[in-house]
Structure formats: C-alpha cells, structure tokens
Design a protein that fits this description.
The structure holds three protein chains of three kinds. Chain A has helices at about 25-50, 55-80, 90, 95-105, 115-140, 145-175, 180-200. Chain A is mostly helical. In chain A, helix 1 packs antiparallel against helix 2 (about 55-80), helix 2 runs antiparallel to helix 6 (about 145-175) and helix 5 packs across helix 7 (about 180-200). The radius of gyration of chain B is 19 Å and the shape is globular. The chains are: A mainly alpha, B mainly alpha, C alpha/beta. Chains in contact: A-B, B-C. At the A-B interface, helix 1 and helix 2 of A face helix 1 and helix 2 of B.
Chain lengths: ~220, ~280, ~180
C-alpha cells in the first residue's frame, strides 16, 4: 500500500474541473428564478390539460409529465435560498413580458380536438428551448462553485429529454393527414416567434451571446 | 385555457358512455333486496363474483381517470398564493405528485382490465367522482377529493385486494396493494392541508368538513359502501386510521352510509309506486 | 323458432323481435333444427344476470332480464348478449340430449366449477361459430374457480378449443385443475 502520509494532489488526475464559471451568484439566482417560473407554468398547464384531451394515452402521459416539471420547480425553489435569495417568491418571475405572452399563447388551446396544438406547444417549442437553456447553463457555470445547480440541471435535463421524446412520439402518432401537419406547423411557428421575442426561457442570453460573458468565454476569476 | 372545467366537459374517446349517477334509483325494476334477496360482500364463493369484480374494476378505472383529471385541474385552477381562492405552492406540488400517482393507477387499472378480460368502455361511466373535484374553494375541493374520494378508494381497493387474496389472484392482490399504499398517502395529504389551511379559519374548516360529509354520503353510493354485514364494499377501518381518520370520523361515515341506503330505498319506493300508478 | 315472452316489455326497453331474431340465428348456428321451438322467458323485473335451462326438449330458458342488458346503457338490449347467452344454453341443451355426452346432473345440482367449465366448452364452440366469446373474460372466470396456475390455464385451453367432449372429459379437466389448487 502507498504511504498514507504521502501528499496527494487534492484533485485526482482525472478530475479536470476548474473554478471559472459564466455566472455570478446573483445571475444564477435570477436564472433559477426564471426556471422555476417556467416549470410552474408548464406543470400547471399539463395538469389542466389532462381533463381536456380525449386520447387516453395522452391523458395519462400528461399526468406523469405534470409531476416531472413540478419536481423541477421544487428543485429550483430549494436552490434559491442557497443562492442568498431568502425570499424565493421575489425571484420567481418571468424573464420578461414576452415570455408571459408565450405561455398565454401556449396554454390557449383548450377544446378536446386541439390535442395536437397542446402537445406541439410543449414538446416542439417549450421543452426544446428549456433543453437549450439548461444545457447552456450546465456547460457554462462553474463546475466547482455551482455544483448544486449542475446536479439539478442534470436531473431536470434527463426528464426533459425523456418527456420531449414521449411528446414527440405522441405528436407523430396523432398527425395523420397533411392538414394536421399544417396545423402543427402553424402553431409551432406562431409560438417560436413569441419565444424569439422573449429571447428564450431566461430572456436574452438564455443560450448566451447577450448578457454576461460572451458565449463560450467564462468570466475570469482571480485565484 | 379557462379555470374550472365542468364534469360535462371531461374529454373522452368514443368508447366511453356517460350515465347519470344513481340512475339505478330511477330504475323501475326492484332491487334484489326489494325482492327478498340479499346484498352480499364481494367474495369469491358467490357465483357472480368474478363478473362483479370485473365491473368494479372498470369502475375503479374510470374513477382513476377522474381522480387524475381532478388533481390536474387543481394544478391549473388556482393561482399560487395564500388568499381564499389561491393554493400554496407546496399544495400544488402535492397535487402534481398526485397527478403522477393517479396516472399510474390508470395504467395499472388498464392492465388489470386486460387481465380480467374487460374492454375499455365496456361499462358506463358516471362522473360523480370528478364532480366532487369541481368546488371553487381549494380547501373544499381538497377535502372532497383527498378525504372523501380517496377514502372511498381505500375502501374499494381494500375490498378488491382481499378478493384477490382469497381467490388466489396474485396480480389483482399485488396491484391493489400498491394502489392502496398511494391512496393512504393522498388521504394523509388532504388531512394535513386541511389542517394547515384552516388553522386560523375555523369557519372555513367547518364548511370543508360539512362538504366532506355531503360527499362521503354521496360516495356511499346508496349504501353499497358501508359497515353493514351485507355491504358489498366494506369501510376499511385499519387503512383509514393509517391515513389519519379518527374513529369518530369513520363511525360518522358508516352512519352516513346507512342513511344513504335508507334514502335510496325511499326513493326506490317512490319510483315503484309511480310505475304502478 | 324462438318464442319469447313477454311480447311487450314495460320495465326495460327491450325489442321483442330483436330478441327473437338474435335467438333464432344463434340457435340455428348451434345446430338446433329451425322446426323446433325454442322458448325463452325473460324476467324483465330482474336486473340480475342469472340464466336457467328449464327443459331440453323442447328447449326452455328462463333468463333474468339483466342477462340481456347493455351494461353501457341501462335497461337497453344488447343483442350480442342475447346471442351468447342463448347460444351457450342451446349448446348445453343439445349436449344433454346427446347420448354420447354422458349424464350431467340436473341444472340445480351442478357445482359452480363444473358449470363454469361447461360454459367454457360451450363458449369456445360459440366463438368458433363467429360469436364474441370474450376469451380472456372467460379465462378470468375459470381461473377464479380452478386456480391461477399453468395447469389451470391448460385445462381452460383444452375446454375452449375442445370439440365432442364428454361430461366426463369436462369434469375431469375441472377436477384435475382444482386438485392442483388445493395442493
């Protein structure tokens, strides 16, 4: 056995994590507040839609997914006090008015014959944008100082990818005519434009390029 | 999407047929007990027991769909907050969790239906369970759903679990036991939230408990659920205690069931007399 | 030719002629000569689903009204149910008439497991004649009486797919399956 007194480097040779990250504590808290807000709106909508869709398989899947996103909201809710935000409600806000408009448009379909629209809004627009924002955050935050956020992002992303796949397959199985293809596309285009105006689920900079550090360049941190 | 979704608007595919709750009360044909026959608990020794279990299982299935829909609507219908028309954030999280549980119960019920040879929509559906979830006051809604409706679920699942055990059906017993565990959690959740949200509002608490009594009586389904010797669905005292019901509350439900039965028989008499004249 | 009573239903919304038509069709398919009367007495006041084979020559059936009822639409007729109920009982009446079938006990002396086993044999034949046998439903009922076991399922399969079985065959399969239940 090696000499227990022999000094070992504190980071194993295969542990290449570094300190710098793109987000300060405040910036992270702000983003996490936006994440919580969007997850809440999403789980509320999915829950509300259960009674409105006649398709049994869709009905049951929405119930399961409702919980996934509620749980994400809870993860973000718990993270906020750890980011010095002792009043989580203060930061549980939409990124801007445009994302509110997006959610309003996404949750507008309610008639039983509009299952395609309901699913397209979530699984072809919102969830892909969430995946993008979460992935950007995951790849740019400090792997050491912001490890708890990374852990939550990892858990959330796992659900997001699975839910996206479930939803996309349901959509594909529901679309049976060219007219239905058009319906899905029209609704998707409308919502994509609203999301574009919002700048993403966390507002401009959701996937970098606007606020804070330029995309791909984390903030310098002095040792 | 609007707030408040009525039972008439519950979306269903073409296999489902809706009937009025307690249509049997208006049926001119006498009940077996009115012809000198006896009601009997669901036990395998009775010749019609497997068919009765199939029918009850389909009723459980449609009930689970409605429970899922009710929990889902509670996620949507109330803004987050602490006002009288709001629901606290943690409550909505619990409702979302219940959505997942009820979705799972739907899945289990579909599989059990396959196991028992029942087709989806083979029996009519009554929306009386969801109607308990339509109350605009979140506390009353929670009480109606999580204490009354889920309390009924405890009784029904316990009956089916026992049936599975005695008949030697490993699948039925296994599935009902898992669902029973979830329902105990749901009832406890309802009890806890009722206490928390009415801690400073005894009047609201009393309204909620009165609403629960109304719903419990409704859910006795004319005395089918009760503590009489011949009740087809027995009150599951032990599991209700685990879920936080006090003895006095369970006694009251038994009494309400007895009253429900008497009211049904009175209504039946009127129907038969009207038919005769 | 089916003779159904009552001619007019007052408590349920059953169509007398529809019952006759369904009963005639299935009786012919089951092998009852069309020249023979088939008497069906429906107790419309009874919502239960019990059925009784009162006589085998002529064939006389006593049916609780609920046996013909559509479970999705209370008090309304389900002609598929008419066909399956009447078909099953006609097959069993013809079994009783056949000397090679053996000597089953009187109807009211049949044990529940034996009755269920005979029903499976009848419903399997009916299924092959194009009527909805609902195999999984019958299997569930059979399992409740004969055990949730591979041997029980094998007995079910033998009954369901059987042709020209005797009463001894039927009761043998039933008894063997139940013996394994006990062990």
């Amino acid at each position: 056995m090696a000499d227990p007194k022999k000094a070992r480097p504190p980071f194993s040779p295969w542990d290449r994590r570094e300190l710098p990250g793109a987000f300060t504590v405040e910036e992270t808290a702000k983003r996490v507040g936006h994440y919580k807000w969007i997850e809440m709106r999403l789980f509320e909508a999915l829950g509300g839609w259960v009674a409105t869709v006649p398709e049994l398989d869709v009905k049951m899947r929405l119930g399961t997914h409702c919980y996934h996103h509620a749980w994400h909201a809870e993860l973000w809710h718990k993270r906020l006090p750890e980011l010095r935000e002792m009043n989580p409600d203060r930061l549980t806000q939409p990124a801007n008015d445009e994302i509110v408009a997006f959610i309003d448009a996404m949750t507008e379909p309610e008639a039983p014959e509009l299952t395609i629209e309901k699913l397209v809004g979530v699984y072809r627009v919102l969830i892909p944008h969430k995946i993008a924002a979460y992935t950007y955050h995951l790849n740019n935050t400090s792997t050491i100082t912001d490890a708890p956020t990374i852990r939550s992002l990892d858990f959330a992303l796992r659900d997001e990818f699975e839910d996206w796949r479930d939803g996309e397959m349901l959509i594909q199985s529901l679309i049976e005519t060219p007219a239905e293809v058009d319906r899905a596309a029209v609704h998707q285009v409308r919502l994509e434009k609203l999301m574009l105006a919002a700048g993403g689920i966390a507002g401009p900079g959701s996937i970098g390029g606007e606020q804070g550090a330029p995309a791909g360049e984390p903030t310098e941190v002095s040792a | 999407m609007k707030r408040a979704w009525s039972a008439d608007e519950l979306a269903r595919d073409g296999r489902f047929v809706r009937i009025e709750f307690m249509a049997r009360a208006k049926d001119p044909r006498p009940l077996p007990s009115e012809q000198g026959g006896r009601r009997a608990p669901l036990t395998p020794d009775r010749p019609g027991a497997p068919e009765q279990a199939r029918s009850l299982m389909h009723g459980i299935f449609t009930g689970e769909i409605q429970a899922l829909e009710g929990a889902g609507r509670t996620c949507w219908d109330f803004p987050v907050g602490n006002g009288p028309d709001d629901a606290p954030f943690e409550l909505k999280l619990d409702m979302a969790r219940q959505c997942w549980d009820e979705a799972r119960h739907c899945e289990i019920s579909v599989k059990l239906g396959d196991w028992m040879g029942t087709e989806i929509g083979e029996f009519a559906e009554s929306a009386f369970l969801y109607e308990a979830a339509c109350n605009p006051d979140p506390v009353l809604r929670l009480t109606g759903v999580n204490r009354a409706l889920e309390g009924l679920a405890i009784d029904v699942f316990n009956t089916m679990r026992d049936f599975g055990e005695v008949s030697g059906d490993p699948i039925l017993e296994f599935c009902e036991d898992w669902m029973l565990a979830d329902e105990v959690t749901h009832v406890k959740m309802g009890s806890d939230w009722l206490r928390r949200m009415t801690a400073d509002d005894p009047e609201r608490r009393e309204r909620a408990l009165e609403f629960q009594r109304v719903v419990d009586k409704l859910f006795s389904i004319g005395g089918i659920r009760g503590e009489d010797e011949d009740s087809p669905i027995k009150l599951a005292r032990r599991f209700r205690e685990l879920a936080g019901f006090a003895d006095e509350e369970i006694d009251e439900i038994a009494q309400l069931s007895h009253e429900a039965r008497q009211e049904l028989l009175t209504q039946r008499r009127r129907t038969v007399e009207a038919q005769a004249s | 030719m089916a003779v159904v009573t009552p001619e007019t239903f007052t408590m349920v919304l059953y169509d007398h002629d529809a019952i006759v038509a369904a009963a005639d069709a299935v009786a012919a398919a089951a092998g009852l000569p069309t020249s023979e009367d088939l008497r069906i007495e429906v107790d419309e006041a009874n919502p239960l689903a019990r059925t009784h084979l009162l006589s085998i020559d002529p064939i006389e059936l006593a049916i609780d009204g609920g046996a013909f009822e559509d479970p999705r639409h209370p008090r309304q007729l389900d002609t598929d149910a008419v066909a399956v109920v009447v078909g099953r009982l006609v097959l069993q009446a013809l079994d009783r008439r056949s000397p090679s079938f053996g000597e089953p006990p009187p109807e009211d002396a049949l044990s529940v497991p034996h009755r269920v086993a005979w029903d499976v044999y009848s419903l399997g034949r009916l299924d092959r004649l194009g009527y909805p046998g609902q195999r999984q439903r019958r299997l569930y009922n059979f399992r409740n009486r004969h055990g949730f076991t591979d041997a029980g399922d094998a007995a079910f399969d033998a009954l369901w797919s059987g042709e020209a079985l005797t009463w001894a065959d039927i009761t043998g399969l039933s008894d063997d399956a139940r013996a394994l239940m006990a062990s």
